[in-house]
């Protein structure tokens, strides 16, 4: 089963900035892929396209055989963690945040509360359940965002710079939660060290696909320099 089929996908922002151009990629269900590229290389844009949150100006995208424009299918099967968790966390407390998405998907309240508590314990968030998300540290915010998404067991998980601005213990915890995830994983990053932690396939994106292969691409200094990464 293909998790992602992207054909000749292009996207430009309303101000004319080019996001991605002519991107063609196939990803099988269960693959763990790093989307590696320089700042401004189009990684976030491509994740937003894969999540169906913006529509390609040209080309098309299918996720598990469904068009990425199929909102109901996407809500139930695709999870995305934004680079800046403040773009995602907007409920009055962490508990409300954990209850929000199950409620959107019509999970009965009692079951949602059980799920929320299970994930709060697993993610070490029990002590902050009553806090407003904006009062949390960067690492705690990322953990809340990850817990909210993983509790719904998405078949495809899209992560945008999951460890940016997070260090020490929270970073190790986040990497462990990511490695426990068993579905199809696409992680956008510009940090080379993160790639082997989260992927065994590397797609280098700088507006368009510059290379697609195994972890050995990380040793190709010419390629990394040409792609603006190293
Ligand atoms: N909302 C927007 N409006 C206009 N241009 C945008 C917008 N978002 C991104 N861009 C532009 O699109 C291009 C690709 O940006 P994108 O954020 O997808 O890259 P990125 O690889 O995720 O970068 P970074 O590693 O810095 O997050 C950049 O030139 C950027 O300036």
From TrEMBL:
Molecular function in Gene Ontology: ATP binding; ATP hydrolysis activity; ATPase-coupled transmembrane transporter activity
InterPro entries (alphabetical): AAA+_ATPase (IPR003593), ABC_transporter-like_ATP-bd (IPR003439), ABC_transporter-like_CS (IPR017871), ABC_transpr_CbiO/EcfA_su (IPR015856), ECF_ABC_transporter_ATP-bd (IPR050095), P-loop_NTPase (IPR027417)
Subcellular location: Cell membrane
Protein name, UniProt field: Sulfate-transporting ATPase
Record's keyword terms, sorted: ATP-binding, Hydrolase, Nucleotide-binding, Transport
This protein's GO CC annotations: ATP-binding cassette (ABC) transporter complex
Similarity field: Belongs to the ABC transporter superfamily.
EC number, UniProt record: 3.6.3.25
Keyword Hydrolase in record: yes
Keyword Hydrolase: yes
SMART domains the UniProt entry points to: AAA (SM00382)
Entry membrane topology: Peripheral membrane protein
Location of the ABC transporter domain: 4-230
Its biological purpose: Probably part of an ABC transporter complex. Responsible for energy coupling to the transport system.
